[in-house]
Write a structure and sequence with these properties.
The structure is a homodimer of 448-residue chains. With 448 residues, the first copy, chain A, is an alpha/beta fold. The first copy, chain A, has helices at residues 87-102, 105-121, 134-144, 168-179, 200-213, 225-235, 239-245, 263-272, 280-285, 293-298, 318-333, 341-348, 350-355, 389-396, 423-441, and strands at 3-15, 23-32, 35-41, 49-56, 60-64, 66-71, 124-131, 147-154, 186-192, 217-221, 253-257, 275-278, 303-305, 373-377, 402-407, 410-414, 417-418. Chain A is globular.
Chain lengths: 448, 448
């Protein structure tokens, strides 16, 4: 009696990122019905298995798919549109007006699909996103075959999809109901923009709505010093203690950024089991500051890592983001042993999975988990010799080294070719959408 | 009468990085006898030119080749061998002993050649290097066809190539005499390791030797707080003022790192016209601190950028390094407008050229300059849409997007294929050299 696998990955260095940090070298990975059936050392024996698809991973690294825990995917339309400006000016004078002009269901769909090409090419198999017209983000992600936790954006200001702010929670509820159980890889969520842009009552009601459906609430918290000061002035509390006073902090609350926090805030976050997303490149580029990530990890907080939108980055290479995160902690907090490579990679894999609420299903390679993994070609001048696989991943690898991407047992990219998206079509659509913006603002006219 | 060019680059977006920030879009680049004969807007007219080689740059960016102003190339043998440790422990307990075991003329040659594959693949056309057996570095760089300013390492401690430290300057003089005028692309130099590892008299004599030959002296200066304190304790002076008291600071002095400096040091550096190399990733990874780069640039200092060795990085992607540099200034000095993308890219091109002493010959694209340039394929998901070419280069590009590399009018890489190096041979040699080290230290044994 032969066992028929869907996919057999043969002879790679399998970095499982499981709790024991198991490495199989060389190892085989068995996939059936979208899940990992077995991981084992490669053997010379003839085992009674056959596979519909064999992936030769000799000379390759096999890793859990990366998890980008904070994005605003449709903003790929504005990548590089506005840089080197302070956050407030950047956001209110440049980004918000451009979004008002550009964003509609159609543009959000195509922008997201185009963003998915970059995600896949960089080995990202799951994202936590927050934006407007989020049902279009869901549709595009599903078409691309990427896993997602997608939050409908809620602000108490007019937004591209909710010109009347008082409709914001009605809109969010419709999104959740429409999306729940609609796509196998998509979990709905709500994304409350920030304590400065969402009112007290709205935050409380959004949290109630999330609890009703058992879904996570995402929010930018303590991103800038100005936010910290203003909430302190208005409420007499830090942003974290303010949110705690509203009763919304719990393990289903995903707090993004947390750059400006007190020791007391850290304690509150630990006590409530709040999940955290660190976005180092965005915080650096907008000069928001540097989050105390090593302390959060020491306290046992769950910390994932996100690229934030490409407007404040401007790329979604999560290997580069993790590299930046580890080096930034060392540089700013004066200790080269802080946030080592292994812990950095955890933020993009196993810890990231818990951050997005799927720690039991993804983020590491072990029997019974979803078959979300990537194969990285090590035949590269910057990847040899190898002494430590974690160092290799964090300090040397780039997203462009990823060769194959498998999500839920489905081959999404093979030999660097994206199989689920018509890349030329997506690029052409994005080109059409930004054409007028390019005409106004494009700086590449001939000179000389 | 037809003009015969060696290379005609057609229809690219040419970012010249010249003093006027000229951009030709679309533009053509004419190359003859290793130099740029003309840069002009692409024209429909039939001009009386023909070319031995035509490079179609439609949909591509054409940039000056990147200049990596500080490397220790042979250390690619130890990439990832020791990470997440403080500088002193990392250097004295791990790196120096491993170097003593590994480094000899043969290993230095092959390691450098292997490092050159990464340099070329990342679009780096010129390096300033400092190491031991530097004549082997010169031989390998020449074989690869890369431009270099190469410094023979001088320490008052036993080193791999100079077990008797009192021979160090004799060794350096021999290197300079042997290398001067030997290879068309190589300029010799001397690399005094640091104020802590090289004695006063040796520094002075090394500078005299450099002056005799009209070549630059490179030195790590004020890299760590410990160095700063120790020199202050020993000499009653900061490292910069100590070196100034020796009379060695002038525009032919290349000071690397300069992390810990006073306002007075900044003034001294400006007055002497000292050239500076910033190595952000190395300084971050070893938690040395953050150099005041934006202030140096504001004062008109010439600042290039370097990856340092891959042991403290661990890659030589200079686009990533520039990205890190710009974001680090913004994050640490609290102003998102600091070190914008254009100035960042200058550090890797036009300013870099002046840093390595070739500002009149390379670093920007203009008539009469050396034909050192790269062609970057923009048909990538992370490179579209484009609003600003400098933002594109610094915040989105990766080394792996480089398609073609031309140095001194010679095609070194074409369509991502390195033409000057037998890549498989170099990899195999490096594999042999590190084999025993890998057996001792390789952590990738099967587990699970």
């Amino acid at each position: 009696m032969w066992l028929e696998l869907d996919i057999l990955v043969k002879g790679g260095i399998i970095l499982t990122m499981d709790e024991r940090d198991s490495i199989f070298h060389p190892g085989d990975l068995w996939v059936k019905d979208g899940k990992i059936l077995s991981i084992r050392k490669s053997s010379e024996e003839n085992l009674p298995v056959e596979a519909k698809k064999i992936i030769d991973a000799k000379g390759c690294l096999v890793l859990p798919g990366l998890i980008n825990s904070h994005t605003h995917l449709p903003m790929v339309l504005l990548r590089g549109y506005s840089d080197d400006l302070p956050l407030k000016e950047w956001l209110f004078d440049r980004i918000f007006p451009a979004e008002a002009q550009l964003m509609n269901p159609r543009s959000v769909y195509w922008a997201t699909l185009w963003g998915c090409v970059e995600l896949i090419k960089s080995g990202i198999t799951c994202v936590m996103d927050g934006y407007f017209f989020e049902e279009e983000v869901a549709a595009a992600l599903s078409r691309a075959g990427i896993r997602g936790v997608l939050g409908q954006g809620v602000l108490d200001y007019p937004t591209p999809d909710t010109p009347e702010p008082e409709e914001n929670l009605k809109r969010a509820r419709e999104f959740v109901e429409e999306t729940l159980n609609r796509y196998p890889l998509i979990t709905p969520s709500i994304f409350c923009h920030s304590p400065l842009t969402v009112k007290k009552e709205t935050i409380v009601k959004a949290k109630e709505l999330c609890s009703e459906y058992g879904i996570p609430l995402q929010m930018h918290v303590s991103e800038t010093e100005e936010e910290f000061r203003q909430i302190l002035y208005q409420e007499g509390l830090t942003p974290v203690s303010y949110l705690d006073s509203l009763g919304v902090l719990d393990p289903e609350f995903v707090s993004v950024h947390l750059v400006h926090i007190t020791d007391g805030d850290l304690q509150t976050l630990s006590q409530r089991g709040v999940r955290v997303v660190h976005c180092p490149e965005s915080n650096m580029k907008l000069s928001s500051g540097v989050a105390r990530v090593h302390e959060m990890l020491q306290r046992g907080l769950v910390v994932g890592i996100g690229t934030d939108s490409v407007c404040s980055n401007n790329n979604m290479d999560l290997f580069r983001e993790i590299d930046m995160a580890t080096k930034l902690q060392k540089a700013v907090f004066g200790d080269a042993t802080l946030l080592n490579a292994r812990d950095g990679l955890r933020m993009g894999t196993s810890l990231g999975a818990t951050t997005v609420g799927m720690g039991d299903r993804i983020g590491s390679l072990s029997e019974g988990k979803e078959a979300d993994f990537i194969v990285v070609d090590l035949d590269r001048p910057h990847l040899f010799p190898i002494y430590d696989p974690y160092s290799l991943c964090v300090y040397s690898l780039k997203g462009s080294d990823v060769r194959d991407v498998i999500i839920s047992g489905r081959v999404i990219m093979e030999n660097k070719r994206v199989l689920t998206i018509d890349v030329e079509e997506a690029r052409a659509k994005v080109g059409e959408i930004v054409r007028n913006i390019r005409t106004d603002w494009f700086h590449l006219e001939g000179e000389g």
